[in-house]
């Protein structure tokens, strides 16, 4: 879609999991492309495939029970799905790295944070112990941890949640990866600390040109951070566009629901409050998706066609695609 | 504010303190004290929703649990419906607890996985002896309908429900004893975004239907603004600002409130860029040995010498709008607005 060659390109990704209740298609035809220095937001409810997309890019989907059925994940032209396990170990942490939601459980409690950051650098860049520790201190300074020389010897339990997430970011960026995947990086944090982490990510992105995939359920967070947004539902992309475009004219009923079901904080709240718009029902089980649109059971605009056939994504505007029968080729709602 | 007989207010809390002693680390150092809640006062009007908002460690949950006498109260007075709660014991306390129920944050861990949904909702009625035993089954079915579940779902176990449905069970259980006050401790923060709206709408609908009063604890300012009538902002065990919802968000006076509001990511802020945004440095400090003077001073971008020395009092600067900050003058100009007009 974009003119320049993308840094990371995912094509038609299909991932299935075998479960007791049958085969669940957790990703179905997921495609994305990411330019250097840009941020792509992936938004949706839990179970819609956001994290599974990230794991598939890193090739961390557990096989079995999982299986990557089809598709390609191209990093600078190289298909990672065809790469050897040895090559993947080089890629993970060096070219693509990841930060997780819960900074406490993703750090090792028995190693100092300096050792944990240094380990990544030693393994990927072959630096000596001393040099790698220097890099760790440099990274802690870059994420604004005060007294970095002292704190590099501290253990995760000695730090607050916000500090630990900074350490995770320092570790993820230590080898200057070209892609950073942030999976709900601030969900466990307080709002003032969340703002600090977002500012930090933006600052580091400006300096290093790292591309970011930000996974979140919070449309506000996505709006603040992302250039482009991908809305996922039940393993499929239902809408994709530039962030401003999605916020101003969301097309898919699910996207509209996601935006309007959250109480928005107003600068000057009106005295009267309307009830919130609800999205009725819950995300369907992925084992028994029918032939039709997977959102149809929760949608207010369902027609016979929606129940019969699943819509494919098509363009409804410049760089704006949605998978919904409401917008046929004429673009009429 | 007298303790009894004011019919406008269901709950009146006066100078409430909850301190926890920490064990000594060794023989030589004295054990510290956690000042979880340190002298807060508020009143909740009948049929309204009173919100307590703050970050983790601010004492908001402890403040709510203290109102239910679920944590030991160090000092102060709590009066529910004119009855002083802090001195009640035994049967009298049980009887008062019937009037206060709680909805917990996590619908996954707050329901007994071995009990059927109907039994979970019925249990408080049996324990508190609400109504005649023969009527209770009918009442459980009625409660299921009121919270948007089907009576035939009574026979299912909690794991057979989705997160939103479990929270509905939690709400039904809280309603079982026909309480007057329901403490909602982050009732939607563990739920998916699309489900939050369902529960928030349900809570408002039940409030109108039963004339309930809510004490609503949350860290989410969007939710608080939507559902609360009056709001107290807590920081390190103290209320730093308190007002009705319109006044609080239209004219936030305390620098901490302003920082909280400006930290919320939103689409509108994206358009406006970084203007008028304050970024707090550091994390909320430890409630053990809080700093002297204003507790927010170490993180406050406007703090002057006096803030580190003298403790500001919570005072009314506009009608119904209370703030504890030395820098807010009687003209109601908050320090962040003063700074913006100079630069």
Task: Give a description of the structure.
The complex is a heterodimer of chains A (333) and B (343). Chain A is globular, with a radius of gyration of 21 Å. In chain A, the strands form 2 sheets. An 8-stranded mixed beta sheet of chain A has the order 6-7-8-3-9-10-12-11, with helices on both faces. In chain A, 31% of the residues lie in helices and 23% in strands. Chain A is α/β, with parallel strands linked by helices and 333 residues long. The model of chain A has no long low-confidence stretch (mean pLDDT 87). In chain A, strand 4 and strand 5 form a beta hairpin. Chain A has 11 helices and 12 strands. By secondary structure, chain B is α/β, with parallel strands linked by helices. Chain B folds into 2 domains: 9-20 and 32-99 and 179-342, 3-Layer(aba) Sandwich (Rossmann fold), CATH 3.40.50.300; 111-178, no CATH class. Chain B is built from 12 helices and 12 strands. In chain B, the strands form 2 sheets. In chain B, strands 6-7-8-3-9-10-12-11 form an 8-stranded mixed beta sheet, with helices on both faces. In chain B, strand 9 and strand 10 form a beta hairpin. The mean pLDDT of chain B is 87. The interface between A and B is large, with 47 and 41 residues.
Summarize the structure.
Chain A has 11 helices and 12 strands.
Shape of chain B: globular
Largest sheet entry of chain A: 8 strands, mixed
Outline type of chain A: globular
Rg of chain B (C-alpha, Å): 21 Å
Q: How many strands of chain A? A: 12
What does the largest sheet of chain B look like? 8 strands, mixed
Q: Tally the helices of chain B.
A: 12
Give the CATH H-level superfamily of the largest domain in chain B: P-loop containing nucleotide triphosphate hydrolases
Largest interface: A-B, 47 and 41 residues
Number of DSSP-assigned strands of chain B: 12
Would you tell me the structural class of the helices and strands of chain B? alpha/beta
Mean pLDDT of chain A: 87
Termini separation of chain A (Å)? Answer: 24 Å
Q: Helical content of chain B, roughly?
A: 25-40%
Structural class of chain A: alpha/beta
Strand line-up in the sheet with most strands of chain A = 6-7-8-3-9-10-12-11
Poorly predicted regions of chain A are none
CATH fold category name of the largest domain in chain B: Rossmann fold
Strand order of the largest sheet of chain B: 6-7-8-3-9-10-12-11
Q: What is the oligomer described by this structure?
A: heterodimer
The arrangement of helices and strands of chain B along the chain is EEEHEEHEHHHEHEHEEHHHHEEH
């Amino acid at each position: 879609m974009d003119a320049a060659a993308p840094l990371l390109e995912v094509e038609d990704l299909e991932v299935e999991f075998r479960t007791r209740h049958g085969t669940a298609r957790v990703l179905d035809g997921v495609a994305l492309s990411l330019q250097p220095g840009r941020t792509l937001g992936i938004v949706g409810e839990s179970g819609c495939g956001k994290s599974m997309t990230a794991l598939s890019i890193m090739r961390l989907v557990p096989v079995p029970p999982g299986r990557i059925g089809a598709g390609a994940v191209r990093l600078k032209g190289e298909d990672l799905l065809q790469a050897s396990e040895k090559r993947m170990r080089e890629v993970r942490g060096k070219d693509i790295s990841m930060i997780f939601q819960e900074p406490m459980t993703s750090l090792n409690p028995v190693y100092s944070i300096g050792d944990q950051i240094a380990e990544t650098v030693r393994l990927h860049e072959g630096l000596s112990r001393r040099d790698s520790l220097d890099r760790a201190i440099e990274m802690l300074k870059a994420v604004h941890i005060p007294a970095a020389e002292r704190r590099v010897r501290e253990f995760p339990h000695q730090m607050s949640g916000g500090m630990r997430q900074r350490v995770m970011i320092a570790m993820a960026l230590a080898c200057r990866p070209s892609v950073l995947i942030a999976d709900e990086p601030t969900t466990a944090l307080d709002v003032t600390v969340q703002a600090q982490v977002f500012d930090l990510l933006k600052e580091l992105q400006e300096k290093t040109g790292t591309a970011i995939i930000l996974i979140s359920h919070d449309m506000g967070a996505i709006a603040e951070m992302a250039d482009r947004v991908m809305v996922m539902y039940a393993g499929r992309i239902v809408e994709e566009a530039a962030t401003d475009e999605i916020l101003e004219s969301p097309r898919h009923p699910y996207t509209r629901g996601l935006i309007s079901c959250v109480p928005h904080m107003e600068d000057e709240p009106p005295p009267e409050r309307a009830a919130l718009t609800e999205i009725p029902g819950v995300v369907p089980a992925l084992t028994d998706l029918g032939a039709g649109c997977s959102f149809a059971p929760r949608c207010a605009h369902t027609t016979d066609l929606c129940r019969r056939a699943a819509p494919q994504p098509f363009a409804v505007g410049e760089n704006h695609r949605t998978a919904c029968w409401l917008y046929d080729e004429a673009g009429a709602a | 504010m007298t303790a009894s007989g004011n019919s406008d207010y269901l709950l009146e809390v006066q100078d409430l303190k909850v301190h926890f002693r920490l064990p000594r680390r060794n023989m030589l150092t004295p054990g510290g004290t956690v000042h979880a809640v340190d002298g807060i006062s508020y009143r909740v009007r009948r049929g309204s929703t009173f919100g307590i908002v703050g970050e983790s460690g601010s004492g908001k949950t402890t403040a709510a649990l203290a109102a239910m006498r679920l944590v030991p109260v160090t000092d102060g007075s709590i009066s529910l419906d004119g009855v002083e709660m802090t001195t009640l014991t035994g049967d009298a306390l049980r009887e008062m607890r019937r009037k206060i129920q709680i909805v917990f944050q996590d619908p996954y861990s707050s329901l007994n996985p071995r009990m059927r949904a109907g039994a979970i909702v019925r249990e408080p009625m049996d324990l508190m002896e609400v109504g005649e035993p023969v009527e209770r089954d009918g009442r459980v079915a009625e409660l299921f309908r009121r919270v948007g579940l089907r009576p035939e779902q009574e026979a299912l176990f909690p794991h057979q429900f989705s997160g939103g449905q479990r929270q509905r069970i939690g709400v039904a259980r809280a309603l079982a004893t026909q309480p007057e006050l329901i403490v909602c401790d982050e009732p939607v923060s563990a739920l998916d975004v699309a489900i939050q709206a369902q529960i928030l709408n349900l809570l408002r609908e039940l409030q109108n239907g039963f004339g309930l009063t809510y004490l609503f604890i949350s860290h989410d300012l969007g939710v608080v603004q939507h559902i609360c009538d009056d709001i107290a902002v807590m920081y390190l065990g103290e209320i730093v600002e308190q007002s009705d919802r319109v006044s609080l968000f239209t004219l936030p006076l305390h620098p901490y409130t302003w920082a909280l509001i400006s930290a919320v990511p939103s689409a509108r802020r994206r358009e406006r860029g970084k203007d008028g945004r304050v970024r707090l440095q550091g994390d909320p400090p430890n409630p053990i040995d809080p700093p002297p003077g204003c507790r927010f001073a170490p993180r406050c971008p406007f703090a002057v010498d006096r803030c580190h020395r003298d403790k500001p009092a919570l005072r009314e600067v506009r009608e119904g709008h209370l703030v504890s900050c030395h820098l807010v003058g009687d003209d109601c100009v908050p320090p962040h607005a003063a700074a913006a007009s100079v630069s």
